[in-house]
Amino acid sequence: VDDAANADILYVGLDNVGEDLLVELTPDAFDRVGPAESSLLDIAALKTSDAKYSRGIILCCRVSKDGKGGVRGIDFLSRFFGPKAGIDEDPVTGSAHCTLGPYFGAKIGRSRVVG
């Protein structure tokens, strides 16, 4: 990964059970990730990756205080890709929010966050 791409990645780590890889991106980088079938996200490569996750990848970004993209009252945005589970993209993954809530709660310093 080149230096420009590294600047877009703010955090990479496994969730607390090792099923999902959590990747926090800058808001601009998050916006650049297209649909699952786009060239920016290589699902075939993710399926065969030897990364130490067993289910999926949670991409997320923090929403700015002024409401990135006109979204007010939202603390973070997320997308879930489950290549190792046969799911290209799942737009409503409640289990991902079990990881995202505590992650952004600690980061923002609040016990309640909205994503």
From TrEMBL:
GO terms for cellular component: cytoplasm. Keywords: Isomerase. Gene3D superfamilies: Diaminopimelate Epimerase, Chain A, domain 1. The keyword Isomerase applies. GO terms for molecular function: isomerase activity. Pfam families: PhzC-PhzF. Belongs to the PhzF family. This is Isomerase. It comes from Minutocellus polymorphus.
